[in-house]
Amino acid sequence: MESISERIASEIYDKSYAIIDDFISEELRVSLLKEQSELLEAGKFRIAAVGKGEKSKSELRSEMTRFCGLTRIT
Fold this sequence. Notes:
Blueprint: H1 4-15, H2 26-41, E1 46-47, E2 64-65
Antiparallel strand pairs: 1-2
């Protein structure tokens, strides 16, 4: 029987994406939604853009983003 990791890898290889029902628990989903809502309300998201610095173009994208990492790479 194929492990979850193998299934994810296989689906990504075959279709460029993977859908795994109930991959994360309901408790984690609720926690992530709460955190996202709080960060959005606090203005911690920014308008997504293509490019860097003065050359970035936000009119090409419509979503909001937030960097998720320990440090920002410059």
